[in-house]
Each structure stands twice: as C-alpha cells, then as structure tokens.
Design brief:
single chain; 552 residues; alpha/beta; Rossmann fold; six-stranded mixed beta sheet; six-stranded parallel beta sheet; 39% helix; 14% strand
Amino acid sequence: MNTSNRVHPLRSQAKVLLSSVFGPYAQDDEYGSRKINPMELYHNQVTRVQGPFSLRMFHRSFGLMLLQENMDAPCTLLDFPTLDRFTNEIQSHSYDIIGISSIIPNVGKVKKMCEMARKYLPNATIVVGGHIASMPDLHNIIDADYIVKGDGVSWFRRFLGQDENAPVRHPIVLSGFGGRILGVPLSRRNTAAILMPSVGCPVGCNFCSTSTLFGGKGKFINFYKTGDSLFSVMCQIEKSLKVRSFFVLDENFLLHQKRALRLLELMEQHNKSWSLYIFSSAQALKLYTTEQLVRLGISWVWMGLEGENSQYAKLKGIDTHSFVRDLQSHGIRVMGSTIIGLENHTPKNIDQVIDWAISHNTDFHQFMLYIPIPGTALYEQLLKEESILSEEECPIADIHGQYCFNYHHKHICEGQETEFLLRAFHRDFEINGPSIARMIRTMLRGWKRYKNHPNPCIRKRFEWGFKKSSVYYAGAVWAMKKWYRKNGPMLEKATSLLQDLYGELGWKARTMVSLLGRVMYFTMKREAEKLANGWVYEPSTIYEKNAKALKQ
C-alpha cells in the first residue's frame, strides 16, 4: 500500500469507478451483512420497533457523489450494487482507478471487492476511503493501493492532477429515496435536498467516528466558508430540484454562527422560505434566539441527549426537557439521540437512564450503544486498558451500535446490552407512541403559532410544510386511532390529535379524512403482514456517469 499521494500517470484522463459496498444488506452472510443492520438510517437506529409506523427510507452515498462531482476525469458511480453487478461492471469495462467507500463493519465486503478488482483489473489503482479508513490495521486486511482518511475531494484532485484549491462543486440530489410509512410511498415533494457545508466536528466527542475521520477534536473542513457561498449553492439546488427544504449534512451546522446569520440575512433579503433539517448540540442551539431559529427555517433538529450526568459537556447547564418542549412549541421537530451503555450505566440504573431519555417525548428518538469505533479516542483508551474484545469474541461486522459491545463494560455483563437497547426502543414506542404522530403534533403546534405571522417567509414555510398536507396527516391519525382502538392511552392521544387537526380543516377537507384514513389503515395492515412474514427492504442499484464518462 502506498502512503504518499502521487499523481496518476493518466491524470484527469484516467477512467474512474466509484462504488459503495455491495448488498443485499439486511441479511446475515459471510461478508458481514447483518439482518439487524439494514441500509436504512431510521428503521435501523430510530424507529426499528415501530412496525408499520416505522419511517423507511434510503440515503445515497453522498461522499461518493461529492467526489464524482469534483472530478475532471471520466467517472462512473455505482451505488448499492450486488456483488454480481459490481463484478460485471469491472469485467465489462476497463477502469484505471477503482474507489470504494465503506463503514468499518463492512470491511469483509471491501476485502472481497478488492480481490475481485485485482482479479479482473490487475492494473487498476484501488483506493479505499470513508469511515473504514480509520481502522489502524486496515492495510493488513485488504489489498488496496491507497487508503484515504479525511478529505477525499482534495486527495483525488491531487491524484488526478487537478487544482486542489478550486471551489468545491456541490452534488444536486435529494436526501433520500424509496421513502414509505404506514405502507404508503412518500411523495418526492416532501423530500429535502442534501446540503453539505462542512465535514468534521469542532466538538470532537471521544466516541465520534466522524470527528476522528477528519482529524479529531477541533478539526473540520468548511467547503463553504461564508453565508454568501452557501446561499448561492442552495439557490442552485432549489432551481434544479424545485425543493424548499434542505437536509444539512453537517455535524454541528450552527456552531459556524457568522455563516448561519449571514445566510439568514440573505434568505430574508430574497424572500426564501426554506426549511433546514440539521444536526446540532444543545449548546450550539442556545447561541441563537428561538426567533432566529424560526426565521432561519430550522424545522428539524437532531440533538444529542447522550445521557443524564454523562461526561459530555454539550448538555451542561441546560434544562433539556424544557428546551425540547420550547422547540416543539415553535413547530421545530426534535430527534433525540441517546447512548445506552455509558461508563456510569449499570443494570440497576438502566431503567432510570431510559426513562430520562423518553421523558423528553421527542418526535423521533435514536438509541445507540456506547461503541468504541477503531481509530477513535475512546477505542485507544479502552485498548490501553485491555478492554477491547478480540475479533473472535466480537466480529467487526457486529460493531454497528445496534447489537453488542466490542469491549468489556465495567458494569454491564456480556449480552445484557442488547436487551437494554431494545428495552429503550420499546419503552419509547409504548409510552410516547408512533413517531409520525408526535411529528404531526409538533407541526400542528407550529402552524397554529405562525399561520398569521407578519413575516411572509415564515407564514409560507408553515403553509407549505403543514397546511398543504394537513388532510393526509389527519388521515394518518384517523388510521392510527382505529389501529389503537383497544389501547386506551394511545387511543386517547390519537383522538385528541385528530380533533385538533379537524379544527384546522374546512368541512370539505374533513370529508376526505375518513376515506384517506380507511385506505391508510388498509395499507398499515398489509405492511404489518409483510413485516410479520419476514419482508425486508433493500435499495435498488443506482448507476450514474459524469459528463466526461458519458462522452466515451
């Protein structure tokens, strides 16, 4: 394996294939796929026990798309291939460079893909990147020429002889595809575009693999350093995709306060009623007034609620319960994220830990095990303490955070963590109900509060985000009410929410609700039957060429 970043002899004439790891994904196989670890963010880590209420959606390999967008070389992108499809591609076409991106649990798949590349294209340069690059001993496991950790755009520009400092071109793509819930496909209209302002995170929590990938604590890369440059990109995406919402793929977008406030100025100057779905710490959110957040279009916040009395400072001095309620009262949906298995968690206090998390009643809630990912500071710490399990004790394919620990926990015995994690998901669902109902409730609160607001951008945002879909939301709640007719607490919640929704609908719209509700109840039952029979959801293979590749 080479360690230096040389220039490829063909420079920007080299033919490049970029590929994600092969599927199927939601199955147990010899390459590291796990049935418990599907290629779905929400159904994997957030709504996994919610059955037909679970939000199902796939997300593209955005890192690979960013690389392709910034290559002058002819580049083909193969996303979510099968092994046969990947093999056929390298048998049928002569590529000079093969780039593979992966997370660490899929190292077995990367190894196999490298083997196939060596077999069919022995002269091709193999480049591996993504989170897997943080594995300290990866070069001993896979046969790759280069392992790229960190900024792949700059690396490939140097490798292809391009200008490393040229402005970054942003891919124009929706944030998800294949969306469905209650057995009903989701409309493209409600899908946000992806926006990638920065990578890395200045906070640098010791367990964070993203922070590690881009240099660790305090390190990050801004692709768009100013509000002006970011606004320009957003306008381009808006025009191309006809979208009004953006999923901001940035670990802590609001920490870059000067950029965010300049973006707000430009949005208001140009009458943009955009919605932003962001990741943020509570501390970063507190840098802004609630009015600023609403004007900026913050509509969805993925916020860490790591745990009560945890060592992480992001929640220090903040009443998270009242903060979450305040955000929701302004129509801002909150995705809480809680870690199971922190250093102070024990079998005796785990129920208290779970109850604290679900008492926030966030719209969605992610639960993950406390996992030391190879390369992170936490992993190095536990390695020194000789607590890390061997590959025989815990295969790499199982360290995805939804199954088991890969180390000896000081208080939690082997196997207990799996049940604790499931307990958290089940209790959140049983007490707070389906996430879709919670989300509708929050959106309704925002609509009631801002439907007559003097700022036209704010009014338009809530009209577009809630009012135009309110009949469908009411139909979904009607179906939930019927579903929970034998569950007193859930029936009461659904009835109350439906009555509140009726209060915002005209009589013509109300007549449609029961019809839509009956259809959704039918699709819910059908979805539940499919799940009970073992149905799994897999992404379709996507094949894309850039302009230069299309000419060849």
